[in-house]
Amino acid sequence: MLPRLLVVEDDDAIRTALRWALEDEGYAVAEAVSGEDAVRQVGAGVPDLMVVDLMLGRMDGFAVVREVRREHDLPIIVVSARADTHDIVAALEAGADDYVTKPFEVKEITARLRALRRRARAAQPPEPRPVVLEQDPAAPLVLNVEAGTVHRGDERLALTLTEFRLLCELASVPGRVLSRQDLLSRVWEHGFFGDERLVDVHIRRLRTKVERDPGQPRVVVTVRGLGYRLDRR
After folding, report:
1. How does pLDDT run across 181-201, given as a tens digit for each residue?
2. Residue 185 CA from chain centroid, whole number
3. Less CB within 10 Å around the terminal CB: N or C of the chain?
4. pTM for this prediction
5. Helix, strand or coil, per DSSP, at residue 77
């Protein structure tokens, strides 16, 4: 079965060009011309991936990503005509996994989609083996790489794919510092496209979910000037 991809774009020419190119890459492509249309289509049948333009009109791409993220963790790439840092960070904060600025080459989109699909497959191998990241008699923080889950006690934490992969990479070398470029190449798999802001934003989002006090992180810590380190406690 072909992977299902939803392209959310109100520009007819760009949307059609993306559809043709992505169909040539082996995707079953559906189109949405507005944010409202995109949310309706996701509600009717969740796609495997999404490409979402940020500037969509009344319901913009930020709102679309937030709405989808309430229920689903499918990979999402956002595209924008503006390369302003505020817009990029806001899109990532909303829950996007990656971003591309316009104008772009379709091959860049397809490369990023391939990387996201590889990450999705790698996140769900069989045979669960939990790793305790933070000891707590009442509510330990437990990562299960093979099952693709993170729990705080009995509560399953709702991490996005990117947040989960970041945690896995840091947990694979506890006590060792990984630079932002290390994490870009390990998690995004296309460091030559990447931007270190991706790492900082997703680390910040990850901390809001796994740390007891995100303002004073104890598990995912910053090593100033070098990168990030996971401390098992």
Report:
1. 888 888 876 544 557 788 899
2. 14
3. N
4. 0.61
5. strand
